[in-house]
Specification:
The complex is a heterodimer of chains A (235) and B (295). In chain A, 35% of the residues are buried. Chain A has 235 residues and is mainly alpha-helical. Chain A contains 9 helices and no strands. Chain B has 2 domains: 126 residues, Translin, domain 1 (Methane Monooxygenase Hydroxylase, Chain G, domain 1), CATH 1.20.58; 93 residues, Translin, domain 2 (Methane Monooxygenase Hydroxylase, Chain G, domain 1, Up-down Bundle), CATH 1.20.58.200. Helices cover 62% and strands 0% of the residues of chain B. The chains are: A mainly alpha (235), B mainly alpha (295).
């Protein structure tokens, strides 16, 4: 009678579990590194709330340095993670990666007032964007892009307020226009009951916050010339 | 889309005030980008829902198989299992193209059915051979299932699975039979559940036949019983290192397995005690045991 369990089966499964553990440990190291770069950059970016735009010229290059080290780490992550099924370990890095993407999106908006598209963002990170089912490799997912976008909306709504405090009312108006457009964009999506929906639902509070700021400004006639026309009609 | 209010007589009530205008979608510079992203998300959600639906069906069918084979394995039951497996084949075949490559792990959580299917297949294999099936032995069985599901009604399966544009990336697979691969976790957690089924089987068969299931066919001096098999499975899992990914689930399953092993142990003990007492008394009454051994 054959034995209940094939003698080779145990070793086979054991070595697979051990391999999995090693992969996870290695990934954790890289993700930790990414996390550190991200926190540093986020910290730098938090200075925008107290820095007038005239001083951006010194602040933003530092932020860019931070983003560059993030990109380097993401490159390492991409090379390592692409050896394994993407979605098997994706949950390990998706949060820090989203945070990283949002620092990059915020940085480009602050410096050029443009929004990077998913493709531009992926190009910046030199990782693929969308893959067909057959290429199982590291990439930036649609959800990650959108979640990163939601988090910069949050940050910008805060900046709108603080920019007024710093006397830069024009920035508040620009942010308001940008957020309103993004909010409209998010309405296009068909969301399921998941994390993305939860986060996207929070955009309306950011919109309201910024609209309140703009209202306060227009009430007192503080809107600078370019943005003023539309507001005055409403008065 | 949304429901409507009814008046006292149950007729649909007219809305108060003017009908709200259709939701106006503001067009701006970002709209095209969001539309592309929407299409990508929609594809993902649709695919996920199809997989979940098939997964539920497969789970239900697998459970039915398990319930059936709980009661020994005469020919008529084998026939029923075959029809259930044929149903499972069809479901597997419809989702097979959608869970290739990167999508295998993407929808791993929606594919819990594979665990149940492994449980059913391992149990079936155990009852027939009294051994634990290996992942390598399962691979051809799975391939076979998917192939059987595709061949009889290829056109139906294809129209079911294909929506206008979404399926295009998966189309190249059409010619060769797509495979539904089992992950190591599918296998291991399926085998964890197997120990529970073996425990149930040991209990019922001992109660019905008065003998411990197992052995018999080999004609060895001491045929191996299910008690030893359970012990071996128990030690197998105890000795394996705990996977880092889902430690919590692993511990939980391991605890259940421990309990199952102990229950069967207890059965073995009771059998031994009663078995030694029996020769003094009334053995002939327990003739049911002989039938079990003939099989």
């Amino acid at each position: 009678m054959p034995p209940m369990i094939d003698p080779s089966l145990f070793d086979q499964i054991k070595s697979k579990i051990e391999e999995d553990t090693t992969v996870r440990k290695e990934l954790e190291q890289i993700v930790d590194e990414l996390h550190q770069h991200v926190s540093f950059t986020q910290g730098l970016l938090s200075k925008i709330h107290s820095t007038p735009r005239s001083k951006y010229a010194t602040l933003l290059p530092q932020v860019e340095e931070g983003i560059k080290s993030q990109v380097a780490t993401v490159g390492k992550l991409s090379a390592f993670a692409s050896q394994y099924p993407y979605y098997k370990y994706n949950h390990k890095w998706t949060r820090p990666l989203q945070d990283s993407l949002s620092t990059c999106l915020l940085f480009t908006w602050l410096s050029t007032h443009t929004l990077l598209t998913p493709l531009q963002l992926a190009t910046y990170y030199s990782v693929p964007l969308n893959l067909t089912a057959q290429d199982d490799a590291f990439h930036i997912t649609t959800e990650e892009y959108l979640l990163a976008l939601v988090s910069i909306i949050d940050d910008l709504s805060r900046l709108a307020m603080n920019s007024v405090t710093l006397g830069d009312t024009a920035l508040a108006v620009e942010i308001s226009a940008f957020i309103r457009d993004l909010h409209a964009g998010f309405q296009v999506l068909n969301l399921k009951n998941d994390i993305l929906r939860k986060r996207v639902d929070s955009i309306k509070y950011a919109v309201k916050k910024v609209e309140d700021v703009v209202y306060d400004l227009s009430l007192r006639g503080l809107i600078p010339a370019a943005g003023a026309e539309n507001e005055k009609k409403g008065e | 889309m949304s429901g409507f209010k009814r008046d006292w007589n149950g007729n649909a009530k007219k809305r108060d005030g003017p009908k709200p205008p259709a939701k106006k979608v503001v067009q701006n510079q970002f709209t095209p980008m969001f539309e592309t992203l929407r299409d990508e998300l929609d594809q993902h959600h649709d695919r996920r829902e199809r997989i979940i639906k098939a997964s539920r069906d497969i789970t239900a069918l697998s459970k039915k198989i398990i319930r059936k084979i709980d009661e020994e394995l005469p020919k008529n039951i084998q026939a029923e299992i075959d029809t259930r497996l044929a149903d499972i084949s069809k479901h597997l075949a419809t989702i097979a193209p959608e869970i290739q490559g990167i999508n295998r792990y993407r929808y791993a959580r929606s594919l819990m059915c594979l665990e149940e299917l492994v449980e059913a297949l391992t149990f079936l294999h155990y009852l027939k051979t009294q051994t634990l099936i290996t992942p390598e032995q399962l691979t051809p069985i799975m391939e076979d299932l998917v192939r059987k599901g595709i061949t009889p009604s290829e056109d139906v399966a294809m129209t079911d699975a294909s929506e206008p544009a979404a399926a295009t990336p998966e189309q190249p697979q059409e010619n060769e039979t797509p495979k539904v691969s089992l992950t190591q976790d599918d296998y291991l957690y399926g085998v964890f559940d197997l120990t529970g089924e073996m425990m149930r089987f040991a209990t019922t068969s001992t109660a019905l036949t008065g003998t411990m299931a197992g052995g018999g066919v080999g004609g060895d001096e001491q045929p191996r019983t299910i008690v030893e098999d359970m012990h071996e499975l128990g030690s197998f899992f105890e000795m394996l290192p705990v996977g880092q990914g889902n430690r919590f689930q692993w511990e939980k399953k391991l605890e259940v397995t421990r309990q199952s092993v102990q229950k069967v142990e207890r059965l073995g003990y009771d059998r031994t005690i009663r078995g030694s007492e029996r020769p003094k008394g009334w053995i002939p009454d327990l003739s049911g045991g002989d039938q079990a051994e003939e099989e």
